[in-house]
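Example record for the data management plan.
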Amino acid sequence: MLIAQVANEGRAGMWAVEQMAMLRCVTFSGCRSWLSAVVLVLLAGCGGQADSAATVTGKGDSSGASTEKLRIALVMKSLANEFFSTMARGAEDYAAASNGEFELLVNGIQDETDLSGQVSLVEQMIAQQVSAIVIAPADSQALVPVLQRAVEAGIVVINIDNRLDAGVLQSAGLTIPFVGPDNRAGARKVGDYLALKLTKGAEVAVLEGIETSFNGQQRKLGFEAAMEAAGLRIVATQSAQWEMSQANQATAAILTAHPDVKGILACNDSMALGALAAVRAAGRTDVMIVGFDNITAVQQAIRENQVLATADQHGDQLAVYGIEYALQALRGGEGVVEDRETAVDLITAAELSAADKPEKP
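Corresponding structural encoding:
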């Protein structure tokens, strides 16, 4: 496996290595040198024909496709978030086991709010004429225009993790299939579990993600529905932009303003960890925290009774589902414009304990 990291310096297609962390090009078709991979991308950015991608349409029509290997770009949010690094590893493992069927390019931005960086990554993939883009958009609205350009360039686009805004897609005349979980249902499961541990009328707070992200909106709605059904009071809702440090600050402020808060519902696990740090710093042992994503650090916090629960949307498989859908579209498969719902499961200490037990012979 060869990994080369490159970035696009400008609209003219000139490439530089100064932002190498922005792109990982993973090739499974043989042994190339690092320098060869960089030269390949340089040629692609300048309009060269080296290793050109198969010709496909945005609707997945592979008639007239070349015999060159398919190239699929996975464009994610922050690779600093364990959920997305796990997603990347799952995709890489799948590509490695594909017997060279396709080439995988793994991309990620530096933090969850770097919308312009993610737009730039998509532009790079368009310039490289990849066969398909599988994207977990950082924003449900802001990424639509550049994805429209990708479709117009004949690139298959599959949306995973965070659903693109239906209204914006409709206004653009786009149909982009979504592969991912029901975030609202997953958050409802987590919220219902928290509600079982609190008394009616107890005060809770919600830490939400980027306000224009569909998955964050749905998780917030799921939490709210669970709290309303249980008769719990949401006394504060604040965006922490999916980030641990912002969640730490937001939670500290909430605990000061609402000292009777007994629960924090975080729309992802990074924010749950930020909330946990703030609760510990305040010396509070009576505040229960729940999250969403099932990352390793939160699993350990659950085992230690520091976090109550989270939701597992199986990040290691989510990108794989999207890649499989893209391959189906590139092969001319029928029904590829339909959305596909994937599993999301409640994770508590009981589930982790059961998973930790060795199987009986």
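Summary line stored alongside the record: Residues 1-66 have pLDDT under 50 and may be disordered.
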